[in-house]
Amino acid sequence: MTKKKYAKELSGKGASKSANRWNSKGTEIIYSSESRALAMAEVAVHLTIATLPSDYVMIEIDIPNDLLIKELKLKDLPDNWNDHPQNIHTQKIGDKFIDLMDLCVLKVPSAVVQGDYNYLINPYHIQFKNIKIVDVKGFPFDKRIFE
User: Fold this and answer.
1) How far apart are the first and last CA of the chain?
2) Are 91 and 98 in contact (CB under 8 A)?
3) Nearest C-alpha neighbor of 63 from the set 34, 98, 101
4) Which tens digit of pLDDT belongs to each residue from 102-126?
5) Sheet containing strand 30-33, strands side by side
6) Per-residue buried b or exposed e for 42-68, using 16+ beta carbons within 10 Å of the residue's own CB
7) Considering only Cβ atoms within 10 Å of each terminal Cβ, which end of the chain, N or C, has fewer?
8) Quick check: helix, strand or coil at residue 57?
Protein backbone atom coordinates (compact mmCIF):
# COMPACT_ATOMS: atom_id res chain seq x y z
CA MET A 1 0.00 0.00 0.00
CA THR A 2 1.40 3.36 -1.02
CA LYS A 3 0.51 6.70 -2.50
CA LYS A 4 -0.47 6.42 -6.14
CA LYS A 5 2.53 8.40 -7.39
CA TYR A 6 4.91 5.74 -5.97
CA ALA A 7 3.01 2.69 -7.27
CA LYS A 8 4.84 2.26 -10.57
CA GLU A 9 7.87 0.44 -9.19
CA LEU A 10 9.20 -1.36 -6.16
CA SER A 11 12.35 0.40 -5.02
CA GLY A 12 12.80 0.78 -1.28
CA LYS A 13 13.70 4.45 -1.70
CA GLY A 14 10.69 5.62 0.35
CA ALA A 15 11.68 3.54 3.37
CA SER A 16 15.24 4.87 3.21
CA LYS A 17 14.09 8.44 3.84
CA SER A 18 13.59 7.75 7.54
CA ALA A 19 14.36 5.20 10.19
CA ASN A 20 11.61 2.58 10.47
CA ARG A 21 11.07 -0.62 12.41
CA TRP A 22 13.24 -2.78 10.13
CA ASN A 23 15.66 -0.25 8.61
CA SER A 24 17.79 2.68 9.60
CA LYS A 25 17.71 5.92 7.63
CA GLY A 26 19.50 5.46 4.32
CA THR A 27 18.80 1.72 3.98
CA GLU A 28 16.57 0.91 1.01
CA ILE A 29 14.13 -1.89 1.83
CA ILE A 30 10.64 -2.76 0.60
CA TYR A 31 7.94 -3.40 3.18
CA SER A 32 5.04 -5.64 2.16
CA SER A 33 2.31 -7.49 4.05
CA GLU A 34 0.76 -10.92 3.80
CA SER A 35 -2.74 -9.46 3.33
CA ARG A 36 -4.56 -6.31 2.31
CA ALA A 37 -5.98 -5.96 5.82
CA LEU A 38 -2.53 -6.05 7.40
CA ALA A 39 -1.15 -3.58 4.86
CA MET A 40 -4.00 -1.21 5.73
CA ALA A 41 -3.41 -1.63 9.48
CA GLU A 42 0.33 -1.02 9.09
CA VAL A 43 -0.39 2.29 7.31
CA ALA A 44 -3.40 3.31 9.43
CA VAL A 45 -1.44 3.34 12.70
CA HIS A 46 0.46 6.34 11.33
CA LEU A 47 -2.64 8.34 10.30
CA THR A 48 -5.46 10.33 11.84
CA ILE A 49 -8.78 11.40 10.37
CA ALA A 50 -7.17 14.79 9.74
CA THR A 51 -4.25 13.28 7.81
CA LEU A 52 -6.27 10.62 5.97
CA PRO A 53 -5.00 10.53 2.38
CA SER A 54 -7.29 10.06 -0.60
CA ASP A 55 -4.59 8.88 -2.98
CA TYR A 56 -3.55 5.52 -1.53
CA VAL A 57 -3.46 2.40 -3.69
CA MET A 58 -3.07 -1.26 -2.89
CA ILE A 59 -0.23 -2.93 -4.75
CA GLU A 60 -0.47 -6.68 -5.24
CA ILE A 61 2.87 -8.32 -5.88
CA ASP A 62 3.87 -11.83 -6.86
CA ILE A 63 6.72 -13.46 -4.98
CA PRO A 64 7.48 -16.70 -6.86
CA ASN A 65 7.14 -19.93 -4.86
CA ASP A 66 10.71 -20.95 -5.66
CA LEU A 67 12.16 -17.87 -3.96
CA LEU A 68 13.77 -18.74 -0.63
CA ILE A 69 12.07 -16.88 2.24
CA LYS A 70 13.59 -16.86 5.70
CA GLU A 71 11.18 -16.43 8.62
CA LEU A 72 12.30 -14.45 11.63
CA LYS A 73 10.82 -16.08 14.74
CA LEU A 74 9.65 -14.17 17.81
CA LYS A 75 12.16 -16.10 19.92
CA ASP A 76 14.96 -14.57 17.82
CA LEU A 77 13.88 -11.02 18.61
CA PRO A 78 14.61 -8.89 21.70
CA ASP A 79 11.77 -8.53 24.22
CA ASN A 80 11.06 -4.96 23.17
CA TRP A 81 11.21 -5.55 19.42
CA ASN A 82 7.71 -4.16 18.86
CA ASP A 83 8.01 -1.00 20.99
CA HIS A 84 6.94 2.33 19.59
CA PRO A 85 8.94 4.17 18.58
CA GLN A 86 10.95 1.36 17.04
CA ASN A 87 14.30 0.40 18.47
CA ILE A 88 17.74 0.12 16.97
CA HIS A 89 17.84 -3.70 17.39
CA THR A 90 15.21 -4.37 14.73
CA GLN A 91 16.73 -1.72 12.46
CA LYS A 92 20.06 -3.53 12.66
CA ILE A 93 18.33 -6.81 11.73
CA GLY A 94 16.83 -5.22 8.61
CA ASP A 95 20.03 -3.43 7.67
CA LYS A 96 22.00 -6.68 8.01
CA PHE A 97 19.41 -8.50 5.86
CA ILE A 98 19.99 -5.93 3.10
CA ASP A 99 23.78 -5.80 3.49
CA LEU A 100 24.39 -9.58 3.52
CA MET A 101 22.60 -10.07 0.18
CA ASP A 102 22.04 -13.79 0.90
CA LEU A 103 18.23 -13.57 0.84
CA CYS A 104 15.73 -11.64 -1.21
CA VAL A 105 12.80 -11.91 1.22
CA LEU A 106 12.62 -11.93 5.02
CA LYS A 107 9.33 -12.80 6.75
CA VAL A 108 8.95 -10.79 9.98
CA PRO A 109 6.21 -10.58 12.60
CA SER A 110 3.91 -7.57 12.48
CA ALA A 111 4.21 -5.17 15.41
CA VAL A 112 0.71 -3.89 14.64
CA VAL A 113 -1.27 -7.15 14.30
CA GLN A 114 0.04 -9.90 16.55
CA GLY A 115 0.19 -13.23 14.72
CA ASP A 116 0.38 -11.71 11.23
CA TYR A 117 3.50 -11.25 9.12
CA ASN A 118 5.13 -8.72 6.86
CA TYR A 119 7.65 -9.48 4.14
CA LEU A 120 10.78 -7.38 3.76
CA ILE A 121 12.22 -7.38 0.26
CA ASN A 122 15.81 -6.62 -0.70
CA PRO A 123 15.68 -4.58 -3.93
CA TYR A 124 19.39 -5.29 -4.57
CA HIS A 125 19.24 -9.09 -4.39
CA ILE A 126 19.78 -10.95 -7.68
CA GLN A 127 16.35 -12.64 -7.40
CA PHE A 128 14.50 -9.33 -6.90
CA LYS A 129 13.90 -9.14 -10.66
CA ASN A 130 11.52 -12.13 -10.26
CA ILE A 131 9.16 -10.20 -7.95
CA LYS A 132 6.51 -8.46 -10.03
CA ILE A 133 3.69 -6.01 -9.49
CA VAL A 134 0.51 -7.90 -10.43
CA ASP A 135 -2.13 -5.24 -9.80
CA VAL A 136 -2.61 -1.71 -8.49
CA LYS A 137 -6.05 -0.62 -7.26
CA GLY A 138 -7.36 2.44 -5.50
CA PHE A 139 -7.82 1.86 -1.78
CA PRO A 140 -9.93 4.45 -0.01
CA PHE A 141 -9.78 4.19 3.78
CA ASP A 142 -13.07 3.68 5.58
CA LYS A 143 -13.30 6.73 7.84
CA ARG A 144 -14.97 4.69 10.60
CA ILE A 145 -11.55 3.21 11.42
CA PHE A 146 -10.51 6.61 12.72
CA GLU A 147 -13.66 7.48 14.73
Assistant:
1) 21
2) no
3) 34
4) 999 999 999 999 999 999 999 999 9
5) 30-33, 117-121, 105-109, 69-71
6) bbbeeeeeeeeeeebbbbeeebeeebe
7) C
8) strand
Q: Is there a contact between 9 and 62 (Cβ–Cβ < 8 Å)?
A: no
CA distance 87 to 71: 20
Asked if residues 63 and 69 have their Cβ atoms less than 8 Å apart, the reply is: yes
**At CA 28, angle to CA 23 and CA 31, rounded to 5?**
65
In this predicted model, what pLDDT tens digit does every residue of 16-30 receive, in sequence order?
999 999 999 999 999
Q: Quick one: pLDDT at residue 53?
A: 78
How far is 74 from 145, CA to CA, in rounded Å?
Answer: 28
